[in-house]
Structure formats: structure tokens, C-alpha cells
Input
Amino acid sequence: MLGLALHTKTYVCLHVFDGRMPVMLVTRPDGDWCALCGDDHPDDAGQYRVVGLGHVIQQDPTLADVLDLAAGEEAEREIVGGPWTRSTF
Ligand SMILES: [Zn+2]
Output
């Protein structure tokens, strides 16, 4: 998978961490990987957890489609398994 290590640090919101929401937004601010549910979150580090990228992909293999995102890019989808809409910010 593009040479990315399975232990690459990835931020997930608590919703994703707890399995309450699927990942609907993958974004790379400052080059970090963030896998989020797509809802708004308070700007508070307590709303996020750090996991390994491999863990996130294991939970949802469809995320492998967007592992070519570069820093400053993001990809969003409406439904799990649906097409990703990519953008740059
Ligand atoms: Zn969330």
C-alpha cells in the first residue's frame, strides 16, 4: 500500500475510535493522517485518538482507495463504499 507503514500515526475522532461512526472524511492537514466521521468536532485534543493506519484500514478496507492523498489534500464520501470526492485545502 504505497509504502505506508501500518503503524503510521493516524488521528481518528472518538466516534470512529469507538466504532459509532464510519470514516467519511480522510484529511491530511500538515501531512498528518486524520480519519474522521465527517461531523463537526470541538477543537479539543480530547475529541481525538491516535491509532495506527493499519488499524483504521483493517476496520474499513475501502479506505485503501485514498491512501495516495498528499499532504494538504482530503477526500470525503457520502456513504461507506461510495465514491470519494477529493479536494485540496
Ligand atoms: Zn466524529
